[in-house]
Amino acid sequence: MLARMSGAAMRGLLVALLIATPALLLPGVAAESSQIVVLVALLASFMTFVEYSSRAPSIVEFRDAAPFNRLRFVSLFFTVFLLSAIAKGTSEPTLMSNALTSLGKIIGNGIDFPFSPVRLMVLMLPADADTVVVNMVRTASGLAYLISLVAMTAFLILVRGLNWPARNGAFNVWVNLPLFNPTVGGDVLFRLQRDARVNIVLGFLLPFIIPAVVKATANLIDPISLENPHTLIWTVSAWAFLPASMIMRGIAMNKVAEMIEEKRRRAYANAEDGTFQTA
């Protein structure tokens, strides 16, 4: 009980730190913005504490299948922290911010080819956007996309190379998938495989779809202004993290489906062996 409560409290503090990171690093944050950030950070921290302090999860998937959620959190935290450091370097340059900016420029320019996700993020900007803003978006997008690719590759290695989640012992499907209702239509195995494919396909398409949708609706609603560093950080972070998270979820659900299929195969084989021995 004590270990679960302390772990939940630590996770809540880390989530609050993640949300507050841009406001803590960037200079010149308005008082009203600081109050909103504190409120959102406290709310997210409380929700995380409640979720992880309960015996069974209600929203968070794969809560007892480490390090799925830890890997996603680390990738998002690194994205937000590094983009905040780069944004701070525009007004208060340091050795670290200059190195991160150079790395982001190299990656952004390397990925910025026709029809690439980074090129679409750049094209999302208005035609009269300042060159500094365009370069900043390209740099941030390239670095964020690289972090998401590294996170997905690391998780794929965990699944295929280290046999996640079976290596952690018994895996309870219904506890780790609280939003998945096994009683709603169709075979559980088929539904898991279908949801896995949908998540992987959507995760692959979202980096292309999001900039296209924003650009298409720019004439109907006020477009997102990426000149504000806070807006830039959270927009690019969400653009890179959400698709990667969906792909990782699809890979995880496909692995769970494979485990269920293997368990069924063994059960059928044991049943047949028992039938033959009885005969």
With helices defined by DSSP (H or I, 4 residues minimum), what is the helix count?
A: 9
State the total count of DSSP E strands: 0
Q: Please state the average pLDDT score.
A: 88
Q: Major sheet, described briefly?
A: none
Oligomer description: single chain
Helix % is over 70%
The overall number of domains is: 1
Element order: H for helix, E for strand: HHHHHHHHH
Helix- and strand-based class?
mainly alpha
Strand content: under 5%
Overall shape: it is: globular
Please state the CA-atom Rg, rounded to the nearest Å.
22 Å
Termini separation (Å)? 51 Å
Low-confidence stretches: none
Brief synopsis:
With 279 residues, the protein is mainly α. The chain is 74% helix and 0% strand.
Task: Describe the fold and architecture.
The chain crosses the membrane at residues 35-52, 73-91, 142-159, 200-221, 233-256. Keywords: Membrane, Transmembrane, Transmembrane helix. The protein has 9 helices and no strands. With 279 residues, the protein is mainly α. It has one domain (56-278). Helix 3 packs antiparallel against helix 9 (229-278). The longest helix has 50 residues, at 229-278. It is globular and about 75 Å long. The model has no long low-confidence stretch (mean pLDDT 88).
What topology does this entry show?
Blueprint: H1 2-25, H2 31-53, H3 68-89, H4 95-111, H5 117-123, H6 131-160, H7 173-176, H8 188-216, H9 229-278
Which terms summarize this structure?
279 residues; mainly alpha
